[in-house]
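Quick one: structure for this chain?
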Amino acid sequence: MKKDLISINDLTADEIKSIFALAGKLKKNPSGYSRSLSGKTLALLFQKPSNRTRVSFEVGMCQLGGHGIYLGPDEIKLGVREAYRDVARTLSRYVDGIVLRTFAHNNVLEMAEYSSVPIINGLSDFSHPCQALADIYTVIEKGREMDKTTFVYVGDGNNVCNSLIYVCAKLGINMRIAAPHGYEPDRKLVSEASELAASRGSSIELFRDPFKAAAGADVIYTDVWASMGQEKETVKRKKAFKGFQVNGRLLALAKKDALVMHCLPAHRGEEITDEVLDGRHSVVFDEAENRMHVQKAVLMKFLGGRGRS
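Got it. Here's what it folds into:
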């Protein structure tokens, strides 16, 4: 039976840890897995532009001996020229897996319902599971212990935030979210994740004051204030998020060896300053690189990789 990756909630804690363990092996010895997906083909079905998601999946598939086919916004015109269910049924007969990068989360759900091959969510308005997996893998790679880590997210309670909440709750990582009124993450999600976190001995907390949230943090994470599709809200959002910038003053409240993270692209001078993004605490570009290693592990798990060649 096929398995989809639509949300972090589709994975158990053990499955997440298994992906991380495999990602570490793939990163350390890429040539040892160079034929793991030989003969497999992955469709990259993108309605939104991309740098890291497209390149990391396409290069990762190549490094595993498989092939990626990029299908951009103008090639299929999903939902306009052709229905999602029809595209899912058709591509399922050609390829071994589909990465969908889209707007509405329901688009991913519909594709998964009608596809007979695994669907991997490359981004939707509700969830960005591959990003969150790479983020937490990076935290662990940098020597942080899950049950002793306080992970602080400052900014918009968006798809990235939602996915980070899920993975932190599943792995027992304490998470604090600092967001202005009206921009908090999904309430139902937070409630469910808080219960799960409590069962693991950790917590998910919401803050209005980013400085209180940042006190004693092991990790400080942020994302853009206005994501793709929200450009018309830019002025309004800049006002709402005033005071939520990750800068030197905020970072000074965190632990001396705190990590700074950002999923990119960054709007430098808005949600994060140059001195912090380019500073000694930043692991932003390690995090970006790890998208590929973690996604290679995901591809092997979901597409049936053969292990070491």
